[in-house]
Design brief:
single chain; cell shape; disordered C terminus; alpha+beta
């Protein structure tokens, strides 16, 4: 069939218009592509030259700000301070030694720091920044910044470092931080990447180490663009880290400061516990040290001075040190005997100066003896024979059970390093520890806090708080975490009769307030402030029969390390206990002479929340106490108490 010519012409016209339309679209696309290529290659040439093949993107970790630590009143105990430092990224520097040589011509570099940096380079990935100099001045930082183009891979930085403004007052409590070491990393199964940053600081000992998990925070990161020489061209984006949690301790910094000053250079320890809630108001080990020395790595000379000191300033005697509690343990023996019906308050024991046990004489501290002694007198005058007698009748297992109830032989879980459990021996304990049978003489020794019996000053303070209140007071060191109050340590009533506790408290009251009491000279006479306490003297050497026959050598005539330990525990006010205190003076001699005056002064400082009035002291002591208060005030002025924070 023939097609109409007019139809063919119409179809041809339609095809021509379609072709023109498609051609126009192609031309527009090509034009747009050409324009885009010109924009990218000409207009944006400089921008994309930075992203050329020799440039690359680095991801760098941002250390988080460490949580700060405050005392119970908001005083800063551990804080972060800006620190100027110079770092180098080895893979960006190229010839690292050449770069270090150039840098040395601009700013002084410590040879020890450089050697430490080279060691870090060998153990760290090449993309991590290595610190070449820390804690440098603004002038040196400026020199490095100006000469940055000639120092590939080198960056002047502002970081944070830990500072302890209270110096030695909190050294044994808070501890200190230091750079992450290979040893630290070896103890971790899967270390966080942030720990690989050279000289990143983590807690080493004390509260800093025990609460590292929440103090450290979470690392942030930044993406930076660097060129072939390692110079940072720009920062592309940044994700800030999460700061560590702020912590508030139960300790009162001003009381802590006083106690540390009062202990002076003695090798000693003191603990103050709030009887109402278990808060540790002060916990001091003497002598102490400046924790700031350890933050960036202590010098060999400084470390040797600390380790060679016979008074062991690095040791935390409050929780780590364990001592025979001596006569401060007699309250436990008395409670065990009372609760088991072995004695009554009026029953007496004859003390001729010794008790024969299995053919051996166990001596009383008073050679002539005390005569007929009841419970009150046994505590007031600290008669040893009374406790030998009642302990043998009670048995060591029941005595140790009572000791555990009052916090001895128990490891109190505080966020401090090396908290000791102490020892409250039993028959089974000796069999498993020494493979020997328990002897009746072991019971006699244990009854007066000697033999195998060991306790820390913290445990003795807990024991005293529980005697004072009749509750299982539990020590608390952390008051709040990021503003959230932590559980109280007030405790529940103990399974001990009120009558037994009252009899023991009455005996402790006589120790300090009866003229024949062993601590009468250290009494408190302030209205409503009377103190109840107990002296203790624990031997660190055996006294031979020959020495006893010739006369026991006085502590003053012995070398320091062979002298007895001096102890004192106390609480006040007697009628409504507020604070309990334990003091141990290593090789201090008699507890009544060396430890009781310290404990009395500390207790008064806590009760009055500051310097107590002279009227709280006996008349005969007031001139001496006034001079002592003035001296301590002068010494304490030198200790910076810092500023308070509204966050705590």
């Amino acid at each position: 069939m023939k097609r109409n010519p007019k139809d063919l012409d119409a179809a041809h016209g339609k095809m021509t218009r379609r072709a023109l339309f498609l051609g126009g679209l192609q031309l527009a696309f090509a034009g747009g592509l050409a324009a885009r290529m010109r924009y990218l290659q000409v207009d944006q040439a400089d921008e994309f030259r930075l992203l050329a093949e020799e440039n690359r993107i680095n991801i760098r970790l941002l250390p988080p700000a460490r949580g700060q630590i405050f005392d119970r009143n908001g005083l800063i105990v551990a804080q972060n301070s800006p620190s100027y430092r110079i770092t180098v990224v080895p893979e960006d520097a190229g010839d690292v030694e050449a770069v270090i040589a150039k840098l040395s011509s601009l700013v002084p570099l410590d040879p020890e720091d450089l050697e430490r940096a080279r060691t870090e380079m060998r153990r760290s990935p090449p993309f991590l920044p290595i610190t070449l100099a820390d804690q440098i001045g603004w002038e040196d930082i400026s020199k490095v910044a100006v000469n940055a183009p000639a120092l590939p891979g080198v960056t002047p930085e502002v970081g944070l470092t830990r500072v302890y403004p209270q110096l030695d007052d909190f050294a044994h409590v808070v501890g200190y931080v230091g750079p992450v070491s290979d040893y630290d990393l070896s103890k971790m199964e899967d270390p966080e990447p942030v720990l690989m940053i050279p000289r990143f600081q983590i807690g080493k000992v004390g509260f800093e180490a025990r609460r590292e998990d929440v103090l450290r925070g979470k690392a942030g990161a930044k993406r930076v663009e660097v060129n072939a020489t390692g110079r940072v061209m720009r920062e592309l984006d940044r994700r800030e880290g999460i700061s560590g949690a702020d912590m508030q301790l139960t300790i009162d910094a001003e009381l802590q400061n006083y106690v540390q000053a009062r202990l002076g250079r003695e090798s000693a320890a003191a603990v103050v516990i709030d009887c109402e809630d278990g808060d540790i108001r002060a916990i001091c080990s003497s002598p102490s040290f400046d924790p700031n020395l350890f933050v960036r790595g202590i010098s060999v000379a400084d470390y040797r001075m600390l380790t060679e000191d016979k008074y062991r300033p690095l040791s935390n005697k409050t929780v780590q040190g364990t001592y025979p509690p001596g006569s401060t343990f007699k309250m436990i023996t008395a409670l065990a005997a009372l609760e088991n019906g072995v004695i009554g308050p009026e029953e007496t024991v004859w003390c001729p100066g010794y008790l024969k046990v299995a053919g051996r004489r166990f001596h009383c501290w008073k050679r002539a003896g005390h005569g007929h002694v009841d419970l009150n007198t046994s505590l007031k005058r600290s008669c040893d024979v009374y406790y030998y007698d009642v302990a043998i009748k009670t048995g060591i297992d029941k005595i140790s059970e009572m000791a555990n109830m009052f916090g001895l032989g128990i490891k109190h879980e505080l966020p401090m390093s090396a908290v000791a459990q102490g020892i409250t021996p039993t028959k089974d304990w000796k069999a498993s520890s020494y493979g020997k049978d328990w002897l009746i003489g072991d019971t006699a020794n244990s009854s007066i806090g000697q033999g195998y019996m060991l306790a820390s000053p913290l445990q003795l303070a807990v024991m005293t708080a529980r005697i004072a209140t009749g509750r299982s007071v539990t020590p608390r060191l952390l008051k709040s975490l990021d503003g959230v109050e932590q559980p109280s340590g007030a405790g529940e009533p103990l399974a001990v009769s009120g009558n037994s506790l009252r009899m023991v408290r009455r005996g402790m009251h006589s120790v300090s307030n009866d003229r024949r009491g062993t601590a009468y000279r250290s009494r408190i006479i302030g209205d409503g402030m009377q103190m109840a306490g107990k002296t203790g003297t624990s031997q660190v050497r055996n006294i031979t029969a020959a020495e006893r026959a010739a006369g026991v050598i006085r502590n003053e005539d012995l070398p320091w390390e062979r002298r007895d330990h001096a102890l004192f525990v106390c609480f006040a006010p007697y009628d409504k206990p507020k604070y309990a205190v334990a003091v141990v003076v290593e090789h201090g001699g008699g507890g009544s002479k060396a430890a009781a005056p310290v404990a009395r002064d500390v207790l008064l400082q806590a009760l009055y929340n500051g310097t107590p009035p002279l009227e709280a002291y006996p008349n005969a002591d007031r001139s001496r106490i006034k001079a002592q208060q003035e001296r301590l005030e002068r010494e304490r002025v030198k200790r910076p108490l810092g500023s308070r924070s509204s966050r705590a």
